Amino acid sequence: MENIVHTLLFYLYELYYVAMFVYILMSWLPNVRESSFGRGLAKVVEPYLSPFRKIIPPIGGMLDISPILALFAFRYVYWGIDAVVDFIFKWLNKAF
To answer: Can you tell me the distance from the alpha carbon of 19 to that of 79, in angstroms, rounded to the nearest whole number?
Structure first.
């Protein structure tokens, strides 16, 4: 059971990470971002990226580094969640 949860968590993390990465790359190609695929991806990714954009302004008005920091933060959140899940399963194994 523990392995299934870790694997599922990992694949969900990887899927969202790749979606964010593709969305960030699409910002260099505005026509792609305005396609139906780009708009659909924006609905999934923008709720996570928008708080970072509010906190970190673009450098020089053009260079937006907030997505890079959002990717790092997402990785650390994943590691934290993975550690908590690991702790819970170890605790359950000891308790039962």
So the answer is: 18
Cα 96 from Cα 92, distance rounded (Å): 6
Instruction: For residue 58, give the amino acid letter.
Output: P
Stated pTM of the model? 0.86
pLDDT bucket at 11, cuts 50 / 70 / 90: very high
pLDDT for 2 beyond 80:
no
Structure confidence at residue 33 (pLDDT): 87
The partner residues of 63 in beta bridges, in order of sequence, read 59
Letter string b/e over residues 70-80, b meaning 16 or more CB atoms within 10 A of that residue's CB: bbeebeeebee
Q: Which among 55, 53, 51, 44 has a CA at the least distance from the CA of 17?
A: 44
Which parts of 1-96 are beta strand (E)? none
Give the CA distances from residue 93 to residues 46, 83, 88, 89, in Å, rounded to whole numbers and listed in that order. Answer: 39, 15, 9, 6
